[in-house]
Amino acid sequence: LGAVSYAEARADAGRCHPGTRANALTDLEMWSYGRGAWEDVKLLILTGPAGHGKSCIMQTFADRLLEKTKRSSSCPVIATFFFKGAVPELKQPTALVTTLTHQVSGQCPSIQPHITTVIHTDRGIFSASLEHQMQHLLV
């Protein structure tokens, strides 16, 4: 669970200083709500050279969305995952689906019985490919 945006392991993660990266954060928010120029964009990829603030932008964005989630049920965020090269278990995608599933089940209790059924009927689910896990646990 060290990969979720609110994990203790991410407490010291960089964040944008107030008033900086405002355009990028506004674009991300518009995309998350499917508004404006981002209305039909289903996947957004933030790219750039190492050290240019991609992780800070995404951590700040995740913090903002999670804060909005506390105040409103209309906020689109239900799960986050941060890869981290310096931490072996966080630089590989093996925990991606299970970490997302854990968070989604906490935000949407109505799907918990489905997840429980999958785990009981597919004993090898956690050793399966990420595609198989995603399809059966989340999709």
From TrEMBL:
Pfam families: NPHP3_N. Residues 39-138 form the Nephrocystin 3-like N-terminal domain. Keywords: Repeat. This is Nephrocystin 3-like N-terminal domain-containing protein. It comes from Coprinellus micaceus. The lineage of its organism: Eukaryota, Fungi, Dikarya, Basidiomycota, Agaricomycotina.
